[in-house]
Specification:
Number of helices: 11
Helix content: 40-55%
Structural class: mainly alpha
Low-confidence stretches: none
Order of helices and strands: HHHHHHEEEHHHHH
Distance between the termini: 64 Å
Largest sheet: 3 strands, antiparallel
Strand content: under 5%
Shape: elongated
Mean pLDDT: 87
């Protein structure tokens, strides 16, 4: 980011001479060049971190110019979710390549967990008798509970473990996983799930499994309030994207007004 965008514009300037106007120009140039919103975010983050470090080291006495710049927010809300047939094909194909990856995908699809939440799971977080998963260290820093389906119960029951403190899905060395295996992308490619799709919001990624879980729940009649609690979202706005999947529920709610008028 420095070599391509920052240096040509103000890389030779002293810190005290870099102004918010310079950063606005940086945003404008990147936008005109077709850079993604995410790239613009990262580029501005580089500038912000440089100034924060300079302030911390007391080699710059002033206000971080990046603090005055509005950071663009990408519209990365995913709209794609899998059909039941697509989900079955994906799980079956994953099992052919990696049973571990199949199991990780299954618990995301059936329980709505993020990849990081799954990697954090330990056996003492899981109560098979009650069918509950205690989800800790979440994105919102709030614990929540997920509920085990029959398929996930069978999967968890067959996985061997030695004690309650062990990770449910350790990596090959027994440590905690950090990333979803590239096998997932390979399988998505083999199944053609992203063929002729250019919009990233419509492409199938691992996070699509959690989005599919949420979409299926709303289609089955779950309220958005219940979904918010189940997914662990802090804001109700985060689940409003699923409102259009429950037209019958919304129609019933609207019908209340008709009943009152009669």
């Amino acid at each position: 980011f420095f070599n391509k965008w920052i240096s040509p514009l103000f890389g030779e300037k002293a810190l005290k001479d870099v102004s918010p106007s310079d950063l606005e120009t940086l945003k404008e140039r990147m936008t005109k060049a077709g850079a993604s919103t995410r790239s613009i975010q990262y580029c501005l983050a580089v500038v912000r971190q440089v100034f924060n470090q300079a302030i911390s080291l007391e080699v710059f006495d002033g206000r971080n110019p990046a603090s005055k710049i509005r950071i663009p927010s990408p519209n990365n809300k995913r709209s794609r979710f899998l059909t039941s047939k697509e989900a079955d094909k994906l799980l079956n194909k994953l099992a052919e390549h990696s049973q571990d990856l199949h199991d990780i995908a299954l618990i995301s699809l059936h329980c709505g967990l993020r990849a990081g939440e799954i990697f954090n799971l330990r056996w003492n977080d899981i109560n098979l008798q009650q069918g509950i998963i205690h989800v800790k260290d979440t994105k919102s820093n709030r614990d929540r509970y997920a509920y085990i389906t029959r398929a996930t119960h069978e999967m968890l029951s067959r996985r061997a473990y030695s004690n309650a403190g062990k990770l449910v899905f350790p990596d090959r060395k027994g440590g905690q996983r950090q990333l979803v295996s590239n096998i997932f992308k390979k399988v998505v490619y083999e199944l053609g799930l992203n063929d002729r799709i250019n919009d990233n919001r419509d492409k199938v990624t691992f996070h699509t499994l959690r989005h599919t879980f949420a979409s299926w729940q709303v289609q089955a009649g779950m309220s958005l309030y219940e979904l918010q609690r189940l997914l662990g979202h802090e804001s109700f706005a985060m689940v409003q994207r699923y409102a259009h999947l429950a037209p019958e529920n919304l129609q019933r709610a609207t019908a209340i007004f008709d009943q009152q008028e009669n």
